[in-house]
Structure formats: structure tokens, C-alpha cells
Amino acid sequence: MEVKSIVLGVEGMTCNSCVQTIEQHVGRLNGIHNIKVSLEDKNAVIIYDSKLQTPATLQEAIYDMGFDATLADSNPQPVLLDTIFLTIPTQSSLTAKQICSTLLKNKGVVDVKMSSDQKTAVVTFIPSIVNGKQVMQMVPGVDLSISAPEVTPGTCESSSWSQASSVVLRLKVDGMTCHSCTSTIEGKIGKLQGIQRIKVSLDNQEAVVVYQPHLITAEEIKHQIEAAGFTASFKKQPKPLKLSAIDLERLRNTQTKGSETAQKETSSMNDTKTVVFRIDGMHCNSCVLNIQSTISALPSVTSIVVSLEKKSAIINYNPNLVSIEVLKRAIEAVSPETFKVSLPEEYDNVALLPALVSTLKSPHPALKDASQPLTQVVVINIEGMTCNSCVQSIEGVLSQKAGVRSIHVSLTNHNGTIEYDPLQTCPEDLRSAIEDMGFDAFLPAQPSPEVQLESHRTEPPSKVSPAYLVRQETKTVSKCYVQVTGMTCASCVANIERNLRREDGIHSILVALMAGKAEVRYNPAVIHPSAIAELIRELGFGATVMENCGEGDGILELVVRGMTCASCVHKIESTLMKTNGVLYCSVALATNKAHIKYDPEIIGPRDVIQVVKDLGFTTSLVKKDRSASHLDHKQEIRQWKRSFVVSLVFCIPVMGLMIYMMVMDSQLSDAHAHHNMSSEEVEALHSSMVLEYQLLPGLSVMNFLSFLLCVPVQMFGGWHFYIQAYKAVKHKTANMDVLIVLATTIAFVYSLVVLLVAMAEKAKVNPVTFFDTPPMLFVFISLGRWLEHVAKGKTSEALARLISLQATEATIVTLGPDNVLLSEEQVDVELVQRGDIVKVIPGGKFPVDGRVIEGHSMVDESLITGEAMPVTKKPGNTVIAGSINQNGSLLISATHVGADTTLSQIVKLVEEAQTSKAPIQQFADKLSGYFVPCIVAVSVVTLFAWIIIGFVDFEIVEKYFLGYNKSISAAEVIIRFAFQASITVLCIACPCSLGLATPTAVMVGTGVGAQNGILIKGGEPLEMAHKVKVVVFDKTGTITHGTPEVTQVKFLVEGSQLPHNKMLAIVGTAESNSEHPLGAAITKYCKKELDAETLGTCTDFQVVPGCGISCKVTNIEGLLYRKNKMVEENNIKNVTLVKIEENVEESVQPALIMDAELPATRTSQKYSVLIGNREWMSRNGLVVKNEVDKAMMEHERRGRTAVLAAVDGVLCGLIAIADTVKPEAELAVYTLKSMGLEVVLMTGDNSKTARSIASQVGITKVFAEVLPSHKVAKVKQLQDEGKRVAMVGDGINDSPALAMANVGIAIGTGTDVAIEAADVVLIRDDLMDVVASIDLSRKTVKRIRINFVFALIYNLIGVPIAAGVFLPIGLVLQPWMGSAAMAASSVSVVLSSLLLKMYQKPSPEKLEFRARGQIRHKSPSEISVHIGIDETGTGSPKLNLMDRIINYSRASINSLFSDKRSVNSVVLSEPDKHSLLVGDFGEDDDTAL
Fold first, then answer.
1. Which of 1171, 1246, 1242, 1252 is closest to 1207 using CA atoms?
2. What's the rounded Cα separation, in Å, for the pair 624 and 1184?
3. Diameter of the chain by CA atoms?
4. Could you give the C-alpha distances from 54 to 4, 47, 65, 125, 493, in angstroms and in order?
5. Do residues 1393 and 1221 touch, judged by C-beta distance below 8 A?
6. What DSSP state is assigned to residue 767?
7. What is the pLDDT of residue 64?
8. Secondary-structure percent of the chain, ordered helix, strand, coil, rounded to 5
9. Which residues contact 414 (CB under 8 A, 6 or more apart)?
10. Contact at 8 Å (CB) between 1359 and 988?
């Protein structure tokens, strides 16, 4: 009977009534033992009989009630069953059958079997639902009692011992420091219901738990460990624990012994007893708590009191259920298992465990063996097996061996996996047993990673060769690739790598941010790729296993010289295939090429080349085309140029002939203007004209030459058009080429037919043909296409320039001990392998991404990041492929090579952006699809319309048809005119220009953006940005720098007592040991002010978190002495810094700097320094004066941090620190507002700081204290109001909001170019680029619209003219004019797009000039601050005029006072903005009044 437990997710429950309904309805179903529905967790835990119900039927039952049910876990867990033996009284009123059926009606009773004598009932029940006592009371009127029969091994009753439903769980536990921690975890978890056993290892930092999944879940265990203050993570999926017959025997023996002693026991079995133990080995209260918590959890113990002082434990227990010996052992087994427990004499002869307590229900440490694993697994490597017969013989012999549970031998892996009982056998015995059979067997160096409860020692491998170990290792390590989404910066990469490296079975992991993929090497016996992806998903990223894992394999194309026959080919192939790491090899003798696939983890391209060279062949790399040849359209340009030249060569004579005929015709028409010619006159005239001379009857020289010139053009010039048109028609689409082919073919065929008819009729008058149309059409169209491709090549220039940045060669060096250079060689960049040491000389390009390991230099990364200033690189810094090394030689270790480098990924990103379509372009493509059939229809309508009009009213045609004369019949005139009109319609219609309007502009736009440090991911964001109405800025790292900076220093003592430089030197030195960001800010500021790289010495450094630091400072005299040499400059500097309206002479005192000269022998003085908040000063007995306190409050009100400094017990300085606003932020906000956009500030910071920052940059709407998750909701809220939102963030916690916004703009440095969530990435950390990106978008969309106008004008005006609609006003077009107009439309569109190349970013200087006088700080009354996500702001009430006057006068008075007080105060950048008390009251809160 299989009882299982399943968890179903239930959606749609609203109250407890729903819960009861489901429980009642499902509980009534057949085969349901128990159901528990939770409204909070939205799930139902159902225990059911798997023979009567399935998860699907249960799901269906809940569905039928109107709720949604989902399978939370597709694998139902087996439920632990227990068995009880009941004696049926002889004088029972009910028969055995009736008792059976009564018992089976109860929930929780699974099965009842009767013994053959009908005296004993064996009841199987679910202990989590009912217990033995309840089972005994289930049959009213019958007094059932428990019996304990002898159980013979192998009988059905032994199912009560089956622990198949126990599960082993391994957890990695971080944060444990001592055995007290392990004891705490064991005590806490051991008490939980459903936990059978727990062992925590401090050395391995792991916990092994055996638990019952129907009582407790793995997640709950993990949660409980975390609640105890440790971090826990799953090492492996929980596995069911299976017990062997031997284990059952062992457990059963223990129990039987217990029952025997229990029967001997004579003491009373009802009352509780008390025992006192002496316990040695307790060290602290943690030990006391451990013992108390573990022992009190035993069902037989009613109370326990442990005393550390008396080293004793007083236990109140039930002697019916437990013996003193068991209690003693239980205490000794409490972790860390070092307690010594002794007993008073009278307790020596005591009973053991009675039979009626199921050992499995209360896992006592009484079972001595329980501290040992019940089974263990070992993998033994076996060499010498040749076939399956060997496998079977090993399996057959070993399975007979005592203690062997199961064995599986693998012929392919050359190993055997054996599950055994460590009490009966050991790995060494098993190994020697295999060797006795004639095979070589050895144990691996480490125990197998299979599930086992405790690690066991294995003998050291005796005969393992290193080569074998390598082979074994490569067999067990597999590699997979996982696509990772949601990574925004290098810290995400580090997070994934750090967490996955801790996991069991993972050997190494390398994450590429730009490519968004992780390469993981893992042990497939321990973990599989989907579990790895799941681990990444748990970290909060999206992860999917990439199926085509092969793409991580290296592919190498080699040219091999010196091969003579097939034997050479075989020699190379067989040698390479034997080489470790080569996956596939194919050598072609005919082409001298070798195609090799290899695993870059094991072998590199250079090693492969060396192998081939060692065989005696010369080999070299097939040169890859590194130029951006696929982008420069060279082939297409060549093709269309050739087409144009061919057409032109034949077209010029045709045009010459045509012009000659036109001139002659016009002369004749002038000569005979007074009358229209008859056919005889025309015939006579034709015979007199050279070109109209008939070679054959009906075939004139003119027509014959035209035909000869037209055929090559039709064949060669139009070749590409015919191929493309054929392909289009074949795929049931109609494109531009179809129109051109239709027009030229109809003209050619019509002319040929007319000519043949004339020859057949031997006509005296030559027919008029259209042989001049195809050459002229093809000339204009191929010219248009040629120019179009030249222009397209120009639009991809930006990308080609990026590609050309890649270096072609690299210098690889070999390092000896202490990084001594042993050798160096030049290799192709494709041959650089991961982990190589590459040397980059000054002026050289970095061939690959890497990490600096030696050397210092400046690197120009401007071509990649757009950052103009060179970046300093020192050991540990990362470098980007394609950047240029400037002054120092560097050694770098390659981390990403080939297609994984940042540069390759940027190129890929830009390529994808240029190929992605803007929505407006998709519309254009759709339009072009309908366009061609429409034009063909218009053309046909035109043809028939003119034929009908001609026959109805011939005069119209006669009047407007050029060169009409009477020699031609009316019908021929009408047909010719109709054909001419319809062919012209086909010629002039051009969907090409429509199709080009958007992509050319998008290409140029994204290219220009990339050159300006703005990476736009495709046409959609480019088009969307111009529709944006609201720009939401994140505060930290976007509007502000994101790092604290000193904004002001106020000196509280006169310069004569403590010179200011001296104070800065002391304070800077004191904070140089601090790791706190504020400390770092102070040190940085002091170094900058003193113009020094190093400061003095700091000793006795102490830090009190939340208060401050104290230390001793020495060796600052040298620093000040150096500084003294620049007294004059310093004086000037101080004068400029002290922005106070005093006369200059007064403030320039030598005392300001320091005493004029130091004595020749400088003695180092020691200063005692305190730096911290008010509390820290008062703790150290210093009084903070009232005005200093006010000044501090003023800073704090503005969102700054005020820090006090005291030297030698005297309060001498007040330092204000804040996260400062970026200098360009104010101008950027003003410019965006002037562009008509609403600007909003959103921050998780407090409202004071948010208001202060907003007032500085001029933002009036602020959302403060917004959580990252709420940022998304806020953006959504703005979108719901019908506004298009652009979100600007630094991409770390803003990525969800960036993804939600219509346009996500991420501000990043070079490494952040791949910020997934954003649509636009600003490579430079400059807010003016936000303005530029929106401006560029607007310019691009404007250009697209202009292009559409160009394209449509041609078609909307040209088609009616061609069709002859404007004939009455004398507008008539020849076919060649139509094709010229068509070509012009395409070229004009492309040229219009190329004008975008002239785009210049709005320069800050111009914008500043334009905004001069209009930018001002906002007063608090103008700023509305909204807390959290609600709309109701806490905007300051508007101040009335009187309040403002009072405010202003207060500020003036205060400024007068403060002038006196802060004579020597040093004010930093922009004193008017940041000065402490002067004139800043304009932005104050009303609370200041």
C-alpha cells in the first residue's frame, strides 16, 4: 500500500470558508487520508492512497470547485507509515472483521491485517495524523491493548521499520566559527518535528539532515538555520534514504533487547522518576542550552535542569518509556559529543528502551550505531575489463559479499559504484576482492560525492598514475553554458561566480557580462545543468541552459603543408584525436586544410599547432577576415557599378540615336507645320533619311541598331534584376525588381513584336519602337543602386571603425618564479588562450580583455568608452581589448578572448541595433508589400483607359501624342500611347525609397550615437525617445556622484593655536586607517588640500561603530615642512577659499598656515585625535558649544553629515560631508525642461536629502523613500496616466524600473555597456548625454519623416503624371524620365539620411549661454515631496509675502553674525552654493522660522 503526500498550489481562495469547503469536499473523496489547506501559503497538503487517487485527479477535484490548482511539486513524496500490534480481547462483542472495518473507516489508518488465530490485529497508520493511543480507542466498546510479537526478518510486518520515506539533505552552512555554533544548530533543528537526525560539521561548514518530508520541508529546515543567524544553501537535492536488511536487523535487535529488559523491570510503570547526573566537559551557557534543548525534546522527559556551576543535570522522566542508561547516552551524544556523564551507584542496574516506543518515531542516540552512517557509497576504478561478461562476473561475486547493498559496474567509465554497510566491510576489502578476480582496482583520492551521511576515510591510492588521474578527471568534469539575463555590472558577475563556486560539484565558473552567458565546469555525478541554472535563478537573475553547448568549443581552421597522401591525413587525424581536449578533427588533402574542434579549457590553438608541427608538417592559421568587409558593401558597390557601366556603354549610342531622331522629327514637323503628312510623304521622307533606311522591308537601320544595343543591356545590365524578381515571384512577393523587370520586359517584347509584324507585312513605313526604354531605365536604376550602396557603406562606418580597433597580434610571455620574464613570442590574436600572460608595450593595443598582473600605465579607452581622459591601470585592474596602452609596459592575464571580449560584444550590440527595425519601418515594409501589386494594377488600368479613351475620342490622343503623324494608323497611335503611359507608370513607382527611409536614418543615427558615447539598442528606443514626456532620474549615482565628498570645513580654533594645514594633516592621517566611506572622503580631501600622496603615521587606532574613531598621530612635521615652501601660493589659495567680505590684508596671516619656520632638528610630536559625532565627543568629556551644535543641525537638515574633530582634547573643527551633485546636473535638468519635458526625482533616500538635492538641480517633483520594487510601480503609475516615461538610472538597483520604462537610459562606465535592462546606454558618466540622446532621437525621427515625404512625393505626384492625368495641361512623361525620377528618389532619401552624420551634440557652453540668468535654485515651497509610492505630497506650504520678508531679513542678520564668527572658515567649490550659514536660507524648510 503506497501512501503519498503532495502539495498543490491553490489560487482564488478569499477566506476561511473557502478553506473549509475544500477540506470538506476533498476530504470526503475515496483514498484521502488527510488534507490541510493554508490560506496564507495558498496551498493544500494532501496525504492520499496512490492506488485510489493521483495528483491529477486531486487537481481536477479542486478545479471543479472553482479554484485554480497547480502542482507545486510534480513528484509526490512517500509518507512514513508506522505499525502497531493490537491484542483483541477474547470476550469481544465485535467480530475481527467488524473491528477491521471500524478501524479502516478512521482517517489515518491505512491497513489492518489479522493474524491467523484472529487474536492480533496489525494496524498500519500514518503517525503524522494519528498515534497508537488514538488507534487503541477507535473501536468503541472493545478494549484493545498493545502487544509486542517477535518479528521474524522478512515478514510483512517489517514494513514498520522501512524508512524509505526519510530523506537526506546536505546543506552548506556559512558563518559558523566554533563548536558552540554547531551545537546551537543541532539543538535547534533536532527539536523540530520530522527531523530524525542532524550532524553539523564545522570543518566542512555543512549540515547533514535526515528528515521526513511529509512533516517538514527542506526549505523550512534552511529557513530555521538562517533564523539562528547563519546562511544556509542546498548542496544537493534531498535524496530518499534507503535502509538495508542489515540495518533493519540491527535496529530490531536493539529493540528486542529493550523489550526483554523491560519485562524484567519491576518498578512502577505509571509515575515519573527523577535522576541526577554529573556532567563533565561543559564550558559555557551554550553547552547548558544544548543539553537542555536536546534532552527536553525526548518524549519521555518531562523536565530537565542543567547547572554549569554544579556540573549536574536533574532530569524528571517516565521510566516506562526510557531508561537511565539511554538518558546518559543521549547526553553524551549531544554535540560536540565531548561530555562525560556519570551516575550515582543506585542507578546502575537499570532498564533499557521498552519495545513500545518506536525507535524511528523518537530517534534516540541510544542506538550506538546511529552516530555512524547506515550505508556508504564508494566508487572504485577498475582497469582490465574487456566486455560485459567481466562486468557481470564482478557484480555477481561482490553482490554475494557480506555488507554489500548494491553494486553497479560501468564498462565505459571503467569503474564500479558500490553501496555498502561500513560496519561489515570497508572500501579496501572491496578493492582487494576485485583484484583477487584478476582486475586492477584502485580507490579514487577522495570519497565519492554520492550521498553519504558522513565522510569516511579511504586508503590512499596505491597504483594510480598521474596520467590516469588526469584522464579520470576529464571524464568526470563536464561543461555547460548558461544564458544569464538581468546582469547589469561587474558586481553581478562577481556575485554569480562567488556563489556558484561554493556549490558542490562545480569546479569552475566564468561569467561574461557582455555576452550574458556563464561557462560552468561541473561534475555530472553531483549536479546537472538545469540545477546550475536554478542556482543562478535563485540569485535573482534569469538563467536558461544553452542547448547548443558546442559553441563554447574552440574551432580552429589550419592550413597544413607537406601532406602527400591519405596516410599523412590519417596520421594527423589519429594523433590529434588522441590528444586530450581535441573533440573533432577533419583534414582535407585536396585543400590542405584541417578543421579542428577543441575544448579551450584543456587545450589551446597553439598546442594543437605544435602537435601538427611535431609530426613534421608545417602549419599556419587560416587568416580570418578582420576587416569589416561585410559592412562596407564593397561587393554590392562593385556589382552595381559594373551594371551601371555596361548599361551606360550601350545607352549612350541609344540616347544619341534618339536625340538625332528627335531633332530630325522637330525639323520636319516645322517644315511641314502647315499640313499633316500623308503616308506616301512619310515613306518618301524615310527613304531620304539615313537611319530610316530599310535594310529589309519593315526593318530600318534605326530599329536594328536600337535592337542590337538593347539586347546586351537586357541580358547583362538587367541580369541582377531578373534574378531578384524571379526569387521574389517564386516566394509569392512583389518587390521593386518585379516592377523594373515588368517595365523593361514589356517595352522590349512589345517593340520586338511590332518589329516582327512590320517585317512580316513588309511595311513601307517603319514602326515606332520602345527599344530605347530598357537601356535608359537600367542606367538610371543601376546608378541609383550604386549610389545607394556607397551611401549605405558610409552609414556603417562607425561600426567598421569599432571592428578595426581589434589588434591583430599579441606578445605572449612565459614567466618564471618571481615573475621573471623567461621568453616571449609574437602570435596571432586568435591564438591567445584564456590564462595566457600577454605583454603590451607603450603605444600597443590590448589584444584581449584581461587583468593587469604587473606594471603601471595610463590607458586610452576613449574609442570604446568615449572617456577622453586616459585611465590609470595598476595590478588588479581590468583592461579592455582595443584600448591603447600609453606610457608603461604592462603584463596582463587574458580573461576573455576571441568573441567573448568586450569589444566583440559592443560590435555585436551595435550590429544588432542597426539590424533591428523601428516600428515606423515595419509600417513602411508592410506598405511596400501592398505597393507593387497596386502599381501593376494602376499600370493595367492606365493601359485600358487610354485604349478606350482613344477609340472613343481620338482627338485627345491626336492632340497630346508627341510626333503624331497621319502616316501611322489611328489604332497604332492609340496602342502606342497607352503602352507608353502604362510603362511610365511602372517606371516611376518606387517602393525602394519607402523602404530606405527608416533603416538608413536609424543606421546613421545609431552610428553617430556610438561615436558620441551613446549606445542605442536598436530602432525602437531611438524612435520611442522622441515621444517621451516625463524623465525620471534616480538620485544616488545619477544626479549625485554616489560617493561622499567633503563640502565644507569649519575651523573652531584660531590659526595661531592650531594652523589649519596642521589640523588637516592630523585629521587626514587619523582617518587614513578608517574603512568607512566618510573617513575615506576626509582623507581624500586632506590629501588634495595638502597636495600630498602620503600623510603621517597613525597608531592605537580604535573605531566605535556609529560613534567615531580615536587614535594617536605622529610624523606630520615632514609633510608640513614640504608644504611650507609654498607659503605664498597657500596664502593666495586661502584668500580665494575664504569667501568672506573682509579686507584681504586681515585674513592673510602667517598663522593661517603655520609657524614661519621649523627648527632644524624636527622632533616628532604625538597628537591624540578624536573624530566623530556629538555623542562621541560627550563620551570623551568634550563639550559641544551651542553655535557648533546649531551649525551641525543646519548641515543635517540639508542632508549632509556633520563630523566633529578634536585634537589633544580641544574641539578644533567641524567637517560637513555629503554626496555632492554632479556639476552638469543642473544644466541637464534645465535643458530637459526647456525641451518641454517633465522632470521627476525618485530616490530611496530620506525626504530632507531629496529635497536639498532637488532644490540644487531645479527639480520640483520628488518621490523620496521609494524602494527599488516601488520604482517599477511608480514608473507604471506615470505610464497609466498616459505619459511616455524615460528612466535614467545607474543600472544597479534601477534595472527593473529601466526595463519597465518606455526608454531606459543607463548611465555607466565602459564595463556597463551591456546593461541588459536599458534601451540606451550612456558610456560616459555625463548627464548631458541624456539630453543628447533625446535630442538625437528627435533629430533622427525628424529625418525619417523628411525621408518619407521625399519618398511619397515622388510616388503621389509621379504616378498620376505618368498615367496621363495631367495631360490636359501638357504634362506628359517618357518612360526614361520616369526611371530617372525613381532613381533620384532613392538617392535623395539616402543623402537626406547622411545629413544626420553632421549631427553635433548640444554643447554645454551653448546651452549655458542660452540659459544664462534663467537657472536658479528652487525654494522649498516650489518642491513637492511625495513619501514612498503615494501621490499625496508633503509639499511645503506656500510662504506668504510677510513670511518671505522675515525669512530674508533673518538670513541677512545671520550672515552678518556669521561673518564675524567664521573669519577663517574654509569654503569649498562654489561658496555661494555650499557655504554654511551665508545666504542659503532661501532653500530652508519653514521649520527654520
1. 1171
2. 73
3. 154
4. 9, 11, 17, 20, 43
5. no
6. P
7. 85
8. 45, 20, 35
9. 381, 382, 383, 385
10. yes
HSE of 1210, CA atoms in CB hemisphere, 13 A: 10
Q: Is the pLDDT of residue 455 over 50?
A: no
Q: CA 1214, CA 1173: separation in Å to the nearest integer?
A: 10
3-state class of 252 per DSSP? helix
Residue 863: pLDDT band (50, 70, 90) is low
pLDDT in tens, 162-192: 334 578 888 888 888 877 788 888 888 888 8
Q: In what order do the strands lie in the sheet with 809-815?
A: 821-828, 809-815, 837-840, 890-896, 849-854, 878-879
The pLDDT value recorded for residue 770 is 73
Q: Which residues of 1200-1239 are buried (b: 16+ CB within 10 A; e: fewer)?
A: bbbbbbbbeeebbbbbbbbbbbbebbbbbbbbbbeeebbb
Do 1394 and 795 meet the contact criterion of CB atoms below 8 Å apart? yes
Grid-cell match 522590349, residue found: 748
Strands 1424-1427 and 1261-1264, by their bridges, are parallel
Phi, psi of 840 (to 5 degrees): -125, 120
Neighbours of 1263 (CB within 10 A): 27
Cα(779)–Cα(772) distance, integer angstroms: 11
Q: Each residue of 1341-1399: pLDDT tens digit?
A: 899 888 888 777 777 888 888 888 777 776 777 766 766 676 677 778 878 888 888 88
Cα angle for residues 812, 813, 818 (degrees, 5° grid): 150
Active-site position among 772, 836, 1034, 1319: 1034
In the sheet that holds 1201-1207, the strands lie side by side as 1097-1104, 1108-1114, 1167-1172, 1201-1207, 1210-1221, 1040-1051, 1466-1467
CA distance 190 to 199: 9
Distance CA 850, CA 1336 (A): 34
Rounded Cα gap, residues 1074 and 1102, in angstroms:
9
203 is catalytic: no
Percent above pLDDT 90 for the chain: 8
Q: Which residue has the higher pLDDT, 145 or 858?
A: 858
Alpha helices in 455-539 (DSSP H): 466-476, 490-501, 529-538
How far is residue 929's CA from residue 729's CA, in Å, rounded to a whole number?
12
pLDDT for 1103 beyond 70: yes
How would you label 377-416 residue by residue, b for 16+ Cβ within 10 Å and e otherwise? bbbbbbeebeeeebbeebbeebeeeebbbebebeeeebbb
271 DSSP 8-state letter: S
Residues 1013, 1017, 1020, CA angle at the centre, nearest 5°? 125
Q: What is the DSSP string of 1082-1139?
A: HHHHHHHHHT-S---EEEEEEEETTTEEEEEEE--HHHHHHHHTTHHHHHHHHHHH--
Helix residue ranges, H only, 600-633? 605-614
Query: Which residues lie across from 417 on neighbouring strands?
Result: 379, 408
Which set of grid coordinates corresponds to residue 942?
492606365
882-903 tens-digit pLDDT: 888 988 889 999 988 877 787 7
Distance (Å) of CA 1004 to CA 468, 995, 1074: 59, 15, 51
Written in H, E and C, the secondary structure of 1017-1081 is: CCHHHHHHHHHCCEEEEEHHHHHEEEEEEEEEEEECCCCCCCCHHHHHHHHHHHHCCCCCHHHHH
The set of cell numbers assigned to 1231 is 535643458
Rounded to whole angstroms, the Cα distance separating 122 from 500 reads 50
Please name the amino acid found at residue 1377.
Answer: M
Note the pLDDT tens digit of each residue in 37-89: 988 888 888 888 888 888 888 888 888 888 888 887 777 888 878 878 788 87
Q: What pLDDT does 139 receive? A: 81
CA distance 305 to 274: 11
873: Cα separation from own chain's centroid: 27
For the segment 1015-1027, what is each residue's pLDDT rounded down to a tens digit?
A: 887 777 888 888 8
Residues present in the chain in total: 1489
